[in-house]
Amino acid sequence: MVSHGNSPTAVIRYHLVIMAMLIFGSVAHAGSGPYLGIGGGFSLMDDANVSAPYPDGTYPPLDATTSIDTGYALRGTAGYAFASGLRAEVDISYQENDTTRMNVKSPGALGLVAYGSSRGLPPSELELEYAALSPQQQSTYEEAAKGTSRIRGDITMLTVWANAFYDFDLQSAWKPYIGGGLGFARVAIDAKSRATGNSLADDDDTVFAYQFGAGLGYALSRSQERALTATLDWRYFGGDDPALKGDVTGTKFHTEIDGHYAGAGIRYSF
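RESULT FIELD:
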């Protein structure tokens, strides 16, 4: 008990100690041990900027934006929960999104392709023929390659993460958490032109990736030996831009892989 004779500083210190015992004392007795988890949900990738410099600098870089539809994502985890509230886990996730449109702002070497298509020239003859055109003629074909084109394709990502999360113990069945992770993503793109059916790209690359987010767990069952927890999860993910080969010009292009994951899952602790 705190007597009325104590100073305000002592009273404040007393209450801070009591709060710390309530908050951290419960965490110290939280369950610990290994766990497995599965989950799934929606992959909401941001529209991706696409850039492609021409190797010898003859043409300005391609500058385009690809629209990406909402897709699906699946994930599986294996980890260990510590009594402190920390969890360390390995997370393997797979996601797939469709892409349907590309808005070309600056065509780069696509202008060369537009010229060759109108002349019926094979790719091996395009560069010299195109270089011989006047700047005004080149500009005409480059403008023809601008605008929105319909494409049919998909972007898939297989990612292996090393994650760390912190669970907040609220002394109830509800347990929110925050955290993030680092990993590597294998990004694959397969896209075709709807107008011609020709392949635009069919390639993959492995890049560094990161994610961070939060979630809310609810204990469905708990005993001394095992626990089953339902989760709602949100993640923001991103990474290095993969370098992929374009089938139209034969040159490399770079695209973005940023976006969000929203889903649900089940975690089994034992």
